[in-house]
């Protein structure tokens, strides 16, 4: 994820932002996070360190601030501490200098006031206005002190008279009625009168103090607000002066074109770089991504503001219709504004209310020995796994969860530019992994012929169908079509490798996305999923690898890199980076984010080679980009998700019973339904029954196939196929599917784009659902 390069002005005079700090002649300038607060300038290696590790702090009250050149400045406190700092632009440097000077002045003033505390005399050099305000404050403080002393005196009197009144009342209780009664009553009356008078005085003093404090509090608040507004105006004025100075300098030098050799300050050696002063920042919100040490092979820096004023036809060959320039609609806002789905159209047909909860997950302990002791003497591949390791969804339903953020494809379908469309498709590929971050439960392995439909035409404009087309190796075919102009299809087979401490799951097969309006056809493959701490420890999931999203019509390509988690990396966890290029390899967009939170894109204005070498020794590419635009952000999980298998809002509805679905639909699977209801022992028994039933059907199908192929061997019993359900052994992935099984709704073809054999939807399911004709469906449950 990108971090803002423009410093942040936070409440209470706190100033934060990224600067480059000189370390040594080997490492040069290193990027550090600086925080200016209460007259102290501190720095950290990253924002995450702010809570526990400060790398250094300097007191500005006694520090000297020196400007070296357009981007460099030095802060020193007399020899013991010296910071050589560099900003990414002159404007950013001026912002820091302004903040540091103001903080230094305030710190010096507070230190002087602390040293002179108790001395009411004013300095002869002070201005008349400042002296007047000081006298007013001193007078107010003396008045408040007087009131506080009055309150203290009244408090002592109340305590004294209250004690005397208490003694009199005690004596009155012990006196017999007689001659002494009238005298005692008179004393009590006097004591009570004194106490009442003192209490009234106390109340009046409190009232006077409160009124005085309230009156002066309002005046001080107004004065403080005026000082803050004046400070903001001064900062804005200084910033404008810095910009004007920069423009005058550039006009004097006649420099109107940004040198192509410019690179990020992070990769410069100590000392000024020619042409560095040309980088100005008219857009205060421009930001750029930093160089990633282990993953990224490129660096991005803010583009020169002159690009904001050019038309799109003059910048990198990108048309102006992308809407990424200042003064036009952003890439995300443009697509949102053009969304034809309106509230009026949704109100025509009542939308079904979906469930938002499922029964909480039971807290059942699992004894591995209780599983293994009943399997002694059996083949390892025959050992069934209990539902304790599962979640109450099938793999077909998990596959349908890829459509959680279907809106990205809806927006992509409305894009006029194929490059902009590629950004949304790339964000969609990343978003499909966001639901897996906490989902350590294993989905149910679908039975052969099992289906799952997801009809969301009323709510979202799309409908989806999945079918288990092979069981060994397990493979599922998926087809989704939207009324908003896109089609998604895929066939995914799974290969896994157990490495001792972790399990790697490698999806095989391609995903296709076709947009009707532009006829753009995109394909990509999934990355490797790794489940860690299989034997000991808490399970956690990571995604790693690379994805190439290819537009087969235009030749555009997006290369995405999922960074594997590393204990020693200082980078953001679960980071994803990518670059969108055209058929000639020219970069147009840079993508950055994390697969569990969000993705952003930045439009590339110019690129150049140079700077730090990557892991393979090649130089990284430096991209000058505009401000990042958010493409996708993960929707928060529903309340109580930790007790519901960490299901998302969509996942909670996938196993909800529906009328009219096929008899092979995953919602009708009894063991899965029992597990969802918390009846795990019954679910385990039902699961074993379904597995044995599937084996019987498999043997019968093979017997019939052998009869038709070899009539002479009709009486022979075929070997029991290694048909397993959720076995703990790792079966090698076979390259062929069942020759004697024909899926109901998909047919095997050679894909015209990838030239790979795959299953493509043949049609007929939704028509059969409308007619309620499921006679051809097998009985698998």
Automatic annotation (TrEMBL):
Among its keywords, does the record have Isomerase? no
> InterPro entries, alphabetically?
OSBP_sf, Oxysterol-bd, Oxysterol-bd_CS, PH-like_dom_sf, PH_domain
Regions annotated as coiled coil? 217-251
Q: Where is the composition biased (Basic and acidic residues)?
A: 665-706
Membrane-related topology note? Peripheral membrane protein
In which organism is this protein found?
Answer: Cyprinus carpio carpio
Kindly give the Pfam families that the UniProt entry links to this protein: Oxysterol_BP, PH
Gene Ontology biological process terms in this record? lipid transport
Mainly resides where?
membrane
Q: Where in the cell is it found?
A: Membrane
Region annotation Disordered: where it falls in the sequence: 108-141, 259-284, 303-356, 657-721
In this protein, which residues make up the domain named PH? 12-105
- Give the protein's recorded name: Oxysterol-binding protein
Compositionally skewed regions (Polar residues) per UniProt: 120-141, 327-347
- Family according to the record: Belongs to the OSBP family.
Sorted alphabetically, the keyword list is: Coiled coil, Lipid transport, Lipid-binding, Membrane, Phosphoprotein, Transport
Q: Which GO terms describe its cellular component?
A: cytosol; perinuclear endoplasmic reticulum; plasma membrane
Q: Name one GO molecular function term.
A: sterol binding
